[in-house]
Structures are given as C-alpha cells and as structure tokens.
Amino acid sequence: MHANMYRRIMGKTIQIRDVPDETYQRLVKRAAETGQSVPDLLRKEVERLASRLSTREWLDRAERMGGPTRNSDTVALLNDARGPWPT
Asked: What is the percent of the chain with per-residue pLDDT over 70, rounded to a whole number?
C-alpha cells in the first residue's frame, strides 16, 4: 500500500540517453546562470513544452476559428499560442 501511495504522490522519471557533452555543458551553464540544477531546469522546460499546443491542436483550433489566410498570420498566431522561446 505504501508503494502505491508513493507512486501517486511522486512524478514520473524521464531518462534521456546519448546527450552530447557539449549540449550537457550548455545546460549546466544555463542552469547555473539561473541558480538551478540541470534537473530543475529540464523539469521546467518539460512542463513548458507540455503546456504548449501541439501543431495538430493549433491547426484544429485555427480551423474552428476560421483560421488565418496568410502564412505570416499563421506564424504569428502559432508563436503567440506556443509562448516565448527560451533564451
């Protein structure tokens, strides 16, 4: 019973293999600049990514709303829906 309660309270674990050293070092630097650990930085990025609309969800929404007629309108609306990119 205790194990079941633990699984409900704790989040899932994600493991990413074969991350290039250069990429990992950039993550270490970025995390340090914001006073976070790499896992904390990645957790926030995963949450941000999961909260954004997928391309399919966005296209479905745009179709229901009548959708934009120009490519530049599409890009602008997609950028607004997805939110800012990390710096």
From this structure: 86
